Amino acid sequence: MKVQVNNKEVEIQSNSTLIELTAQLELPLVGIAIAVNNKMIPRTEWESLSLRENDNLVVIKAACGG
Fold first, then answer.
1. What share of the chain has pLDDT > 90, as a percent?
2. pLDDT category, 48, cuts 50, 70, 90?
3. What is the distance between the alpha carbons of residues 1 and 48, in angstroms, rounded to a whole number?
4. Are 59 and 5 within 8 A, CB to CB?
5. Rounded to an integer, what distance in angstroms lies between the CA atom of residue 48 and that of residue 54?
6. Which residues are paired to 4 by β-bridges?
7. Residue 54, pLDDT score
8. CB neighbours of 52 closer than 8 A, spacing ≥ 6?
9. Cα separation of 62 and 51, whole Å?
10. 32, 45, 29, 34: which is closest to 10 by C-alpha?
11. What is the assigned CATH class of domain 2-61?
12. Smallest Cα–Cα separation from 20: which of 34, 6, 37?
C-alpha cells in the first residue's frame, strides 16, 4: 500500500505499524517526531499504530541551533 511521507509517496506492507515504517525508512528512533494525518503520535503508540492506505505522515527531525 502507499502512504505519503513528507510529500513523497512510499510503498509499505499492508498493516504496517509506525515503528515498522521507521525501520523501513532507516529513521533514527531518537530526535524525531511523527505526525499522521496532522496529529502528532506519541512514541509510546508507534508500535501499535497501524498505517492505512493514503495516510499522510510528516517526519520532523530535531536540529541544533537557533
1. 86
2. very high
3. 18
4. yes
5. 18
6. 9, 56
7. 97
8. 1, 3
9. 23
10. 34
11. alpha beta
12. 34
